[in-house]
Amino acid sequence: MKANKIIALLVAIVLTFAITSPADAQFGNLLNKAKNSVQKKIEQGVKDRAERAAERAVDNAIDKAEQHVEKEASKAVKKASKKVAKKTGVNVVESSSSSSPIDEDDADFMLIYKKKFKPSKEALASNQFANSDEVPEGFTKSYKELYATFEHLEPSLFPLQPYYKYPVVYALGQKRINQSDVAFSTLMKNCFTSSTGLVRTISNIQLWGYGVDEESKELISEDGQKLAMQMDDAEFRYAWAALFFADPNSWHSVWNLAMLMVNDNRWLTMVKEYEVTTNTGIADATKGWMFPYERFSAKEREGVMKHMARQYVDIELIARCVLTLYQKVESDPTPYRKALYMFAANELYNQILKEHKDFSANASKFNQQTMLYARYNNTEESRKIIDDAQVEPEPPTMTLKPGAMNKQLNAQILKIMKQKDPDVIRVVVISDSWTVHSLKDRSVMAWAVYRNKKGKLEAHDYSFCQDYMGAGKYGSLRYKGIGTQTVYVK
């Protein structure tokens, strides 16, 4: 019966958090913007302004639609709760998203941080930190208290037990806690600096499974089954969740929750992908790997964490963390970190602070956070922060080789390009022959060489054509358009 209760409670939480948050809409169309540093025409500026206006209109429409979805969601949760009760025999308390959907008498697995546990003999023998009174940075409890609580984590959310057999996944000790922070920062840097033009880099999340390296040999179950986890789960999600359940009212736990919400933000999911998209069952049949999760995984676990933060974490602590994140947006000189802090602040404000059970009664205390959210949520300023974080990949360096048409057309094309941009130094016609588009035109390609702002020679490809005039004749050579290639000139 206890298992059924836990499943019912988790399902209720998952249903509550299954609705896309309005914060996700703030960056809805950004990845459709292709930067073009070559064209300097007035028409391009007009086009850019039109795109921004269109994006604002779409984002506003998304926000309005999602507000409607949220209103309908409470009805859906009530219906789903009745279905859960019918299947499991457990009644789930109906409520709004800002109040608890859980009967507090059944919430023991979320309230373990209130209890005092002692480390087991096995933990003391296996974990050097199990009896340490040292308090890790950013937390309120000692290693001894944290790890004693780890022995009582809910198995459906934390299936790797006993914890001390998985020191890497649980990030035991300050060194490993620091390593989890570094792993997260590295992933975020890759995501936020990804370019968003015709070609964009993608952060691939791979599996970390038994035998991949020396540390991965801990990934084996009590019955000898080889296991695998998503790399981000193994590197930081699992450990941060365990620490949150053990000490939710600590600065580091609230901070990490904000970062986990960034990791799950819709914009981030568009610039990263999981090589294996499932999280339960078979992970890799050829290697004999299984996922440790039977039903729920990191996403559902983080949904429970959001609920805990809304219900049990001090609202003043959350508000201070939101404010600190916004202050870092304004003070940090590194573009990708500014974007990261902005996302984290927006998520923590929108999903946790304003949905906290104590927010309505104390809303006036948090006017500063509310104003900062309005400033950095779905605004031109927020878009610029994201654009500034993106790093265009360095173009390749190559020798420009002239084609057979170079001698014949070089002077004409150089004259045309000089009229368009006096900064053009020279041109190199690439084509060996005309490319004929029947009854339309014939065209050639050429490199135009510039000196960029850093003084380096750079070339972009352009097309030029002669329009078909009929009777086998073609008109004068004219500019046709810009290509997609940029190279450094050797």
TrEMBL record:
Domain of life, per lineage: Bacteria
Taxonomic classification: Bacteria, Pseudomonadati, Bacteroidota, Bacteroidia, Bacteroidales
Native species: Prevotella micans F0438
Signal sequence, start to end: 1-25
Protein name: Uncharacterized protein
This protein's record includes keyword Signal: yes
Keywords, alphabetical: Signal
